């Protein structure tokens, strides 16, 4: 146990997931990466993320549905939607992180998340 807060990343593009993981690690989070919503949901009993970064265009269960499930299971989790879609099409979330994402973008979005 590291004592670091947990960030959940739900992202099907491996390169994007790795990049987000690196950025979140630098921000002081342990990171759990799920390649799809089903993997994230399966992990719910074993994780308690303080922040979740969620892609919308996922195989299987959609990012929109996954965002609702994350909010229901972890009501205090800071939800960040990251997508190539227009921000107007994002589901309700605490923050929007349009792609492509930079480390500075992610820092700005998560700097207020309790650690």
From TrEMBL:
Domain Response regulatory stretches: 6-114
Modified residues (4-aspartylphosphate): 55
Keywords for the protein's UniProt record, in alphabetical order: Phosphoprotein
Superkingdom, natural source: Bacteria
InterPro entries linked to this entry: Bact_response_regulator, CheY-like_superfamily, Sig_transdc_resp-reg_receiver
TM segment ranges: none
SMART domains, per database record: REC (SM00448)
Signal sequence coordinates: none
Name under which the protein is recorded: Response regulator
Organism lineage: Bacteria, Bacillati, Actinomycetota, Actinomycetes, Micrococcales
């Amino acid at each position: 146990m590291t004592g670091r807060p947990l960030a959940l990343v739900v992202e099907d593009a491996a390169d994007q997931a790795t990049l987000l993981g690196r950025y979140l690690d630098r921000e002081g989070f342990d990171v759990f990466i799920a390649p799809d919503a089903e993997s994230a949901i399966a992990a719910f009993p074993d994780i308690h993320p303080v922040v979740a970064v969620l892609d919308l265009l996922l195989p299987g269960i959609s990012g929109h549905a996954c965002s609702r499930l994350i909010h229901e299971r972890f009501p205090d989790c800071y939800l960040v939607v990251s997508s190539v879609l227009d921000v107007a099409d994002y589901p309700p979330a605490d923050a929007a992180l349009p792609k492509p994402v930079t480390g500075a973008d992610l820092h700005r979005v998560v700097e207020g998340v309790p650690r």
